Amino acid sequence: MFYTSTRNKNIKVTASQAIAQGISEEGGLFVPCELPQFSLDKIASMVDMPYTERAKTVLKDFLTDFSEEELDYCVNGAYATEKFSSSKIAPTVNVAGNKNILELWHGPTCAFKDMALQLLPYLMTVSAKKTADGKTIVILVATSGDTGKAALEGFKDVDNTRILVFYPVDGVSPMQKLQMTTQDGENVSVCAINGNFDDAQSAVKAIFTNDEIKAQLAQKNMMFSSANSINWGRLVPQIVYYFSTYCDLLEQKRIALGDEINVVVPTGNFGNILAAYYAKNMGLPIKKLICASNSNNVLTDFLKTGEYDKNRKFFTTTSPSMDILISSNLERLLYHMSGEDDTLVNELMNALSTDGKYEVSKTLIDSIQTVFDAGCCDEASVDATIKEHFDKYHYLCDTHTAVAVEVYDDYVKRTGDDIPTVIDSTASPYKFSKSVLTAVTGGEEANLDEFAMVDELNKISGVDVPKPLQALKDKAVRFNNVCDKENMSEMVFKLLNL
Ligand SMILES: *Cc1c(COP(=O)(O)O)cnc(C)c1O
């Protein structure tokens, strides 16, 4: 199978080129030229498989230049059961009736980013061996919290890689900060920057494209790559769990083979929901993809009207991983749904970078709406949903998951469509203990320190605290570098000993 670029469909690369390179040279994103098709019989054959075998079945049709041994090595390493707090890796839990929750946060950092970032380092090192002859890959990450930690944990002590993570000094939750500053591994570095996430992101992008820095790296046999969801290697592992949850629903006899399901995804960069779109187009019986946003509802407006406009107020919410106004992966959807119109994608993306907005044709938005529904949820509804689901079903959601649950409840009220549904749960509630505890109790414990809140939430809910979060309490802080955003490139040199 080959991959092309959303901005130039004359480009043709292999999976390993797409993964090692990260982004196409003219700025487009790599997309598969065609999708493998899964028959219902093939899906049925996956029911009895463990997660690792389901993953290999899906991935081998996408990573056709990987050998069987290479794929075994990658998948068995990434999804080793001792790294996950559930032997199912990504279990599907029934809440009530047709409402099921796909828990994607049982990995080492307790957020769904692990599902992709545990596998990506393996895919990348195998790809680099094939295409970049033994260079050391330097992963540069700007993070607002979850990606940084998941990338650190995925890349720690992986041969021939270095990873440098920059986070805004005041822009992450206390738990997220501790997760990063206590990170172990010989090839990792973490640095706070005086600035916000956008400053970190812009500085990282500038370093990526600085020819002088690239040349210095090349002299030391190093190259940059990206662990962001613009990388195909981040997206492809996410297709797997949609097949896996369907198999789990079959196994639990909640659906029969061929029955359609709806899928609800708490969305930021549009990566996770795009993976569900690919699964649907590969033959997985999905009816609607429901895109859930918090108060930063640029995607809700787009999916309802066809106009994407990021010129709006930015809200800092209790679901920070969805506080985003430029959803990069929407570019891939526009490419596929416009009949692979790379000229149109160029026009739209140029308009987005110059005017901050674009509008698609009525035909295009109509066809997008046959597949996607959308809704958004304000902060008060997030709290109310966490409380209601805990009181009624004894199910404890994190803030991101609660956005999706609330949007789904609205969808059912609005449409009457209550077929079996999977709602993605993207983080452990303990990663956002303060918000979750406040929602459940009505607010009194807000002054406790982070671990006291974790204990209190555990006492009230009886839900186990994930071991990796519990262990942070006794871990020493290793990284306390802080630098100004103007000095980030010097910091990169210093951290790489160049
Ligand atoms: C990254 C993230 C999201 C958003 O996922 P996208 O693929 O960017 O749409 C939602 N919830 C949590 C907890 C996340 O870390």
Descriptive report:
One of its GO terms (molecular function) is threonine synthase activity. Belongs to the threonine synthase family. Its cofactor is pyridoxal 5'-phosphate. The chain has helices at about 15-20, 40-45, 50-60, 70-80, 115, 120-130, 145-155, 175-180, 195-210, 210-220, 230-250, 270-280, 300-305, 330-335, 340-355, 360-370, 380-395, 400-415, 435-440, 450-460, 465-470, 490-495, and strands at about 5, 10-15, 30, 90-95, 100-105, 135-140, 160-170, 190-195, 220-225, 260-265, 285-295, 305-310, 355-360, 370-375, 420-425, 480-485. It is α/β, with parallel strands linked by helices and about 500 residues long. The chain has a domain at about 80-110 and about 235-465: Rossmann fold (3-Layer(aba) Sandwich). The strands form 4 sheets. Strands 4-5-15-10-11-14 form a 6-stranded mixed β-sheet, with helices on both faces. Strands 9-6-7-8-16 form a 5-stranded parallel β-sheet, with helices on both faces. The two termini are about 40 Å apart. Pyridoxal-5'-phosphate binds near residues 111, 146, 267 and 270. Pyridoxal-5'-phosphate (PLP) binds near residues 112, 146, 271, 321 and 400.
Key terms for this structure?
single chain, 498 residues, alpha/beta, Rossmann fold, globular, binds pyridoxal-5'-phosphate
